User: Fold this.
Amino acid sequence: LSVVVVTAIISIILPERVSTPGGRELIVAKPFGPSVKTPDPARGYNGWYTGEAGITETLFTLDYKMNLQPWIAESSKHVYPNIWEIGLRKGIRFHDMTPVTATAVKWSFDRIIDEKSDMFNKRLQKLLDIKSITCRGDDTLIFETGEPNAAFLYYLTSPGTGIVGGGRDKDIIIGTGPFKLANVIPNEEMVVSRFDGYWGERPKLDKVH
Assistant:
């Protein structure tokens, strides 16, 4: 069998099951998943898992026609060839209910671009080429790149740039998506639960495995 056929067979969606009165739970079988207990999107390719599971979101995204769309961001302005001004959508909260501010987003990016950080991502920083990030108030960031980068906003759709909050527990991924990370058994299972404080449309499922 070809890889495509095998993947189609393995990636089956099982019937929904009722876990609590009025609650809904979904089990999805798929061939790939996190290989670590804490799949931080900034490390390796974990962002693909956390983004797909609805745990993390990026500043921008691509629609089904590959058109750039704002997501956590609300606006963008190309100020100079190597400077971008990005405004954040208001009213978004992390899974711990702390607000998504310019300072919080800067912190999330600093981990990726700082060579001294445990979460430094050489591949992403090579694409982004961020020289500095400055906060202007609570909802505006100024990104300066080393060289003019016409594709900068498109690179911000990379799942590895998924915005996460600081928090006190490094073993918990605090995203902004419709689902919170509940548990990971490396190479076996990832469980997410509904985030009732989500800024967008509320998920209809309570839990997904």
Summary: The chain has a mean pLDDT of 88. The CA atoms of residues 50 and 58 lie 11 Å apart.
